[in-house]
# Entry
Amino acid sequence: MPDASPATAYYSLLDEGVYLASESTMYRILRQHGEVGTDRRRQATHPPRAVSELVADAPNQVWAWDITKLRGPDKGVWYCLYTIIDLFSRYVVGWMVASRESADLARHLIEATARKHGIDAGTLTLHADRGSSMTSKTLAELLIDLGVAKSHSRPRTSNDNPHVEASFKTLKYCPIFPGRFGSIEHARVFCQEFYAWLQP
# Structure
C-alpha cells in the first residue's frame, strides 16, 4: 500500500482488523513528515440553518403556543394545558385545559382567541414547535382562513419556543402548584386563578 492515500490505507487496515490510528491522525503524521500535500479534499459542508427570529414591536403581532402535561389524580392520568402567549407583552392571551391533545381542540382555542382579540387577516404570526397538533392540516386550514401566518421551530430543535416554555416553568414552579390535580376541573380552576393573579 505504499501509493495508497491515507484514507485508503486506513480503511484497508480496518478491513484486516488492524487499527493503528484515526484517519485524521494518519494525515497529521504524514503532513508533519512532508509525505502528504495539502490537496486533501474537503468534506462537503452545509451552511448552518438560519435561526428564524420572531420579533414583535406591539401586541398581537406574534403569538406563540404550546401544550404541556399536568398530572392528574392517578398514575397515568394527565391533562393537557394549551397556552397561547403574546410575544410582545408575554401575556397569556388564551389557554385551555383538556383531557387529551388534539388538533381539533387546538383549532377551537386558536380560533376563539383570535376572534376574542379581534385579529385582522395579515397582522399575526403564530409560532409553535413541530408537534402533531401544531403541524396538523386542520390547524393549517384554520390559519389560512384567518389570514394568520404560521411559524414552526427548526426540526429536531428543542429550544425554539422558549417564551411558552418559560411561561410553563413559571406556572409549574409556583410555590402553590400542586404535584397532582384531583380532577380536570381542579386543574382548570387552578390555571384560571393563577393567570388572573399573574396578569391582573
Remarks:
- The helical segments are 6-15, 23-32, 103-116, 137-146, 162-172, 184-198.
- The mean pLDDT is 86.
